[in-house]
């Protein structure tokens, strides 16, 4: 997913922070976070018309394995950020782009870092705490399930894209979404997220992450009458994020959700 022409792409597409209304910085902004003796770089997207006169929704986005690194920029190369650049009017929200270290996954310290970046952003801007959302692709899809399972009270809705809930023999991602002590994974996941609006996306022909995992998760959630949607793209391989994030119906659905007591 990360291309060799990253520098040129960033130079041509990455928006520098600019002064918006009432002097607020807008665009894709550089941020740093110190946690556990480590310094992490990440990005925060702020809409051009941001104003503290109203409370804004917030999206936490988890990138895929190909964007891991330390520069804080790669998370904005693929997935949600390109969709925002193409159609900023569809995303009137503050978006947090944490950056996972090489050879890690969205679990443990990296999951803690993502939530810390989210919390820092919630304190920095005028936000609506009942409209905080979580989404991610591939490794970030797995991370979306992982964080949602452990923090269902924090999010108004979640959208895992080509992710997985069970360990994959072909991947070095050994942290399960559902801890073994919680019992069989899918029933436990369904119980925990029974009231959470979830929209799952996957490609029918995914050669990286088997589509059956998303099908099974959707069925488990449907079995407990959870508010789940499932979209499977016929003929698509692993890259379903361009279709999902490029869909106007997705952004409209996501931003319409509000947190309720669960």
Task: Describe the protein.
- The chain is an alpha/beta fold and 262 residues long.
- It has one domain: Alpha/Beta hydrolase fold, catalytic domain (Rossmann fold), CATH 3.40.50.
- It is 29% helix and 23% strand.
- It contains 8 helices and 9 strands.
- The protein has helices spanning 6-13, 80-86, 109-124, 139-150, 185-192, 212-223, 241-245, 248-256; strands at residues 18-19, 25-35, 38-46, 56-62, 94-97, 127-137, 157-161, 198-203, 228-233.
- It has a 9-stranded mixed sheet, with helices on both faces.
- The longest helix is centred in the middle third of the chain and has 16 residues, at 109-124.
Features:
Rossmann fold, 9-stranded mixed β-sheet, globular
Fold topology:
Elements: H1 6-13, E1 18-19, E2 25-35, E3 38-46, E4 56-62, H2 80-86, E5 94-97, H3 109-124, E6 127-137, H4 139-150, E7 157-161, H5 185-192, E8 198-203, H6 212-223, E9 228-233, H7 241-245, H8 248-256
Parallel strand pairs: 4-5, 4-6, 6-7, 7-8, 8-9
Antiparallel strand pairs: 1-2, 2-3, 3-5
How many structurally independent domains? Answer: 1
CATH topology: Rossmann fold
Elements, N to C (H/E)? HEEEEHEHEHEHEHEHH
Number of strands: 9
The CATH homologous superfamily corresponds to Alpha/Beta hydrolase fold, catalytic domain
Number of helices: 8
